[in-house]
Amino acid sequence: MDPQVSLLPDRRRLHMHHGPIDLIVQVEGSEREAGLRRGVARFRTILAELADELPLLRSPVAEGRALHGPVARAMQRAAVAHSPAFVTPMAAVAGAVADAILQAICDGDGLDRVHVNNGGDIAFQLAPGTRLVAAIAGIDGARITIPAESPVRGIATSGWRGRSQSLGIADSVTVLARNAAAADVAATLIANAVDLPGHPAIRRIPAVELFDDSDLGARPVTVSVGRLTQGEVDEALRHGIHAARRCMARGLIEAAFLGLAGKTRSLGAAPFTALSQKEPIDA
């Protein structure tokens, strides 16, 4: 299927779809049309670039193989930053694609606010005096408010209920970082850490039984989570917070928000703000 690009009914957002890539893009500013044209042009080439290096992108970063495309290299950099943890560049794919489209759009003047949402992983740019309000996945009514002066330019969410496979049991882990690729990998690994290994209420199967091309191979991924005690939920979240602290100590993330069975934990100075559900969501 060829790349599909269409303006959404609100006339403000653009939908870009090609294979597994599904983007919602919004651009504000006097040079909006020029920015969108650059974004569409970049979008039309990006899937083919990734497909050319897919076998290496599915290999653990510890194997140290060189990648060539700019998005593939960005994925590798984001994953290598977490060494020696097991991770493949594919952990960064959604965020890195969002970053690349954002970069193309912003390669010019006259833009006030841009955000690229790739299935919930968001890359964005803010002009002085602007802000971004985004929902926290899985937490009713919760919002993240990010002002232009914040260093955060990427948001990603992971968990066992989402579209990605997870080794852990987090309902959701939302991470803020300096770009979306970095947030994407960190959210994946922190979500993996929210876990109770060997617990009988947790059902797992080899990743390849769900998707035969999974980069996780035979590693057991979570497919259902049964009833947990409050103490068990606290324990699992504690493991996740420890992983988030390690990421923060290495300068890989700015903040994290973890949710499991109705309980939440947060880490970092970013403005996680519980706003009214009437507050407009930008991305």
From TrEMBL:
InterPro entries: ApbE-like_sf (IPR003374), UPF0280 (IPR007183). It comes from the Bacteria. NCBIfam families: PRK04334.1-2. This is UPF0280 family protein. It comes from Sedimentitalea arenosa.
